[in-house]
Amino acid sequence: MIELYDKDKIVNILKGYSIRVTPNRLKVAEIILNSEVHPSIDEIHTILTKSGKNISFTSVYNIIKMFQSAGIVKEIKSKDRSRYDANLKPHSHFICKNCGRVFDVDMEITNSNFPTSINGMSVDSLEVTYYGLCSECNNDNKDN
Amino acid sequence: MIELYDKDKIVNILKGYSIRVTPNRLKVAEIILNSEVHPSIDEIHTILTKSGKNISFTSVYNIIKMFQSAGIVKEIKSKDRSRYDANLKPHSHFICKNCGRVFDVDMEITNSNFPTSINGMSVDSLEVTYYGLCSECNNDNKDN
DNA sequence: GTATCTGCAAATGTTTTGCACTCCA
DNA sequence: TGGAGTGCAAAACATTTGCAGATAC
After folding, report:
1. Distance A18 CA to C7 C1' (A)
2. Do the Cβ atoms of B133 and B110 come closer than 8 Å?
3. What is the biggest distance separating any 2 CA atoms in chain B, rounded to whole angstroms?
4. Which residues form a coiled coil (chains A, B) (predicted)?
5. CB count, 10 Å around CB of B48?
6. For residues B93 and B130, is the Cβ–Cβ distance under 8 A?
7. Rounded mean pLDDT of chain B?
8. Which residue in A53, B52, B101, B107 has its CB near the most CB atoms, within 10 A?
């Protein structure tokens, strides 16, 4: 994992969203901002717990939902559970049908010129999602 | 609701997928094939129950999952639950952030020229989803 | 001190499974 | 009579909430 955001940057990001900085929020922000495979709430909790950082599932939940409201992260509905994506530059997603992990894909369809209204429905965002097997699950398949 | 598929057509569709025709399967297929707002399993069950057609939730579940395996319907992960779309011509979806209902949108991005491989991941489908408020929820908002 | 933050434990709601019963070839 | 179809009741999960105690400003 490439550490794109260090503690100082994360503190500034949270402050930029008027979110008070707490140790728990830093922990969660660090994971979500630096993760390539957008983790679920459960996975964030597991990652932190395994690395000795104590936090409850509920707190991860509260923090992620707060980040979501603030606009720091976006919810991605994957195979079985929601995953969360730090929402910085426009991009698409690849969802693995087997493991459910979500990978970023460079945006190929411009996000700027989608219709703002379709049949009386007001459109505020557009998502492009690719589905298939990730490289890891592809290899697992070959082994069988 | 425009009745696009009558019983005979549905029987043929099921047979085309080598699915044995039973009264329950006909009921579910009729709903899912002729629905504009792609219903959830629960909604299909409710629609049938309210119209006096007896079927259990489990059977709707079994049938939808069988249709999904066969390729008749596709799962759409909406707001809180999965919805199911009879998968006939390529199109996009509009998901209402408020009520979670899913509406069809004429495909604007061609489904044919997406990459078959991205960074070792094999791509087999592409979905374009618009998010916003449907016309009904738009109106509800105005009333407040 | 008081509002915020945290987290246990329980509730909720959807999805899934186990198993027994029914039905028809 | 046996395999497929059905459905009740319960399990399995992810998600969400209530509430009480801890923390920080």
Report:
1. 24
2. no
3. 52
4. none
5. 20
6. yes
7. 88
8. B101
**DSSP three-state, residue B106:** strand
Question: Running DSSP on this structure, what letter comes out for residue B97?
Answer: T
The DSSP symbol for A128 reads: E
With contact defined as beta carbons under 8 Å apart, do A107 and A90 qualify? yes
- Residues carrying CATH 3.30.1490, chain B: 92-143
- Residue B5's pLDDT band, with cuts at 50, 70 and 90, is confident
pTM of the model: 0.89
CATH architecture of A92-143: 2-Layer Sandwich (3.30)
* Coil, strand or helix at B9: helix
DSSP string of A31-95?
A: HHHH-SSPPBHHHHHHHHHHTT----HHHHHHHHHHHHHHTSEEEEE-SSSEEEEE--S-EEEEE
Quickly give B69 CA vs C18 C1' distance in Å: 22
Helix (H, G, I), strand (E, B) or coil at B133: strand
Are A122 and B133 a contacting pair at CB < 8 A?
yes
- Backbone dihedral angles phi then psi of residue A134, each to the nearest 5 degrees: -70, 170
Q: Does domain A7-76 have CATH number 1.10.10.10?
A: yes
Query: Is B130 within 8 Å of A118 when comparing Cβ atoms?
Result: yes
What is the token pair recorded at A29? 């922000």
pLDDT score at A88: 72
In chain B, CATH 1.10.10.10 covers 7-76
Q: Is A106 helix (H, G, I), strand (E, B) or coil?
A: strand
Taking the C1' atom of every nucleotide in all shown strands and the CA of A80, the nearest one is D14
DSSP code, position B73: E
Contact (Cβ atoms closer than 8 angstroms) between residue A76 and residue A38: yes
Closest-CA distance of chain B to residue A131, Å: 5
Q: Whole-angstrom Cα distance, residue A33 to residue A39?
A: 10
